[in-house]
TrEMBL record:
One of its GO terms (biological process) is cysteine biosynthetic process via cystathionine. GO terms for cellular component: cytoplasm. One of its GO terms (molecular function) is pyridoxal phosphate binding. Keywords: Pyridoxal phosphate. The lineage of its organism: Bacteria, Bacillati, Actinomycetota, Actinomycetes, Micrococcales. The keyword Zinc-finger does not apply. The modification N6-(pyridoxal phosphate)lysine is found at residue 208. It is an enzyme of class 4 (lyase). It catalyses: L-methionine + H2O = methanethiol + 2-oxobutanoate + NH4(+); L-homocysteine + H2O = 2-oxobutanoate + hydrogen sulfide + NH4(+) + H(+). This is homocysteine desulfhydrase. Belongs to the trans-sulfuration enzymes family.
């Protein structure tokens, strides 16, 4: 039976629970596992250190190699992204680092990155710390930037922080066979599934919407078996693994992901529409507004515009002052949780980004939560009016 997508969100990764005689996800905290013999243990070690997964009943040796609680979360994510496999990491940045290391190890260290990107992703690429060489481009500039040693094309849509949308199919065509990585953190698989339209890897900061409650960090990459094995090998060797307790929380978050994303989106729509008519707001950036979606991607590539928005006011001083005046929402970085957060990208999340690509200092980004939209709007408006 082909299950509905919301059903999958509730049940994926829980297939073995009934056989275990439990109903909720079990939390297995073991750092090590009993070995029957040196030979069988060594064989399992070898398998997992080279990117394999243990067979049922085979020893898992050591938590850095494999853990059942973590594997259940991965299996939930792969089902939601329509991917054969998913590999999780300690954070979104650890996931990106593993993807970059895989390209470098394959002798293809050149990365074409479509700006804007999350500030941390821009930073790791700009520093070249992991042995990559980057060419930053704007949408449409990918093909001209490709080199024989280009191993990856990286993009976000909606992008952080200006919510710019990008046509993934067009990007994949431009990439001309080079694997495309889409950071799907803002859209989540509820609204957009890039692997179904040609991307090779989908990356998430699971810290954001997947967990959804602001209390667990993680990263995850959904992809094909070849990439997955390579990423597991890198994880086993370098140790940037997701541990069981956050994996448990993130997996629990998947069950409510569709409901949260749709409800937050509904709130965001109302807040964006109302902000647009406020005289102190010079621009609202939200994919649900027709002028922010010139390619008509909402309703085609994305089933909805999501719950992140940015807006601009007249001066940078005003933008920096507004977050100090909010009372219901929290002035904090991060996004995608059940409560509303506001932050100044140029000063915080995108601080390390080079001047030519830095977001406008007049811009604030808001992650809309599950509060009543009237309350979110009232808080935002009183903070704006306290300053402007
Ligand atoms: C937060 C974020 C990341 C980094 O994830 P961490 O879990 O903080 O390491 C990457 N991409 C996007 C779009 C993000 O918002």
């Amino acid at each position: 039976m082909e299950l509905g997508w919301d059903t999958t969100a509730v049940h994926a990764g829980r297939e073995d629970l009934a056989a275990l005689g439990v109903h909720a996800i079990p939390l297995d905290m073991s750092t090590t596992a009993p070995l029957a013999s040196v030979g069988s243990g060594g064989e399992a070690y070898e398998l997992m250190a080279t990117g394999g997964v243990p067979a049922p009943g085979q020893t898992t040796v050591y938590q850095r190699l494999w853990n059942p609680t973590v594997a259940r979360f991965e299996s939930g994510v792969s089902a939601l992204e329509g991917a054969p496999e998913a590999v999780s990491f300690a954070t979104g940045m650890a996931a990106l680092a593993a993807v970059l290391l895989a390209a470098v190890a394959d002798g293809k260290p050149h990365v074409v990155a479509v700006r804007p990107l999350y500030g941390g992703s821009d930073h790791v690429l700009a520093t070249g710390l992991l042995g990559t060489q980057v060419t930053f481009v704007r949408p449409g500039g990918v093909r001209a930037a490709l080199r024989p040693d280009t191993g990856l094309v990286i993009a976000e849509t909606p992008a952080n922080p200006d919510l710019r949308l990008l046509d993934i199919k067009a990007l994949v065509a431009e990439a001309d066979g080079v694997p495309v990585v889409i950071d799907n953190t803002f859209a989540t698989p509820v609204l957009q599934r890039p692997l179904e339209i040609g991307a090779s890897l989908v990356l998430h900061s699971a810290t954001k919407f997947l967990g959804g409650h602001g209390d667990a960090m993680g990263g995850v990459v959904a992809t094909d078996p070849g990439w997955a094995a390579r990423l597991r090998q890198i994880r086993a060797i370098t140790g940037g693994l997701l541990t069981p307790w956050p994996a448990y929380l993130l997996h629990r978050g998947l069950a409510t992901l569709p409901v949260r994303v749709r409800a937050q989106q509904e709130n965001a729509h109302k807040v964006a529409a109302a902000l647009q008519s406020h005289e102190a707001v010079t621009r609202v950036l939200y994919p649900g507004l027709p002028e922010c979606d010139p390619l008509g991607l909402v309703g085609t590539q994305m089933s909805g515009p999501g719950s992140l928005m940015s807006f601009e006011v007249d001066t940078a001083d005003q933008a920096e002052a507004i977050p100090a005046h909010v009372s219901l929402m929290t002035h904090a970085v991060s996004l995608g949780g059940v409560d509303t957060l506001i932050q100044h990208p140029a000063g915080l999340t995108h601080r390390p980004v080079a001047a030519e690509a830095k977001p406008h200092a007049t811009m604030l980004r808001v992650s809309i939560g599950l509060e009543n939209p009237e309350d979110i709007l009232a808080d935002l408006v009183q903070a704006i009016e306290a300053v402007c």
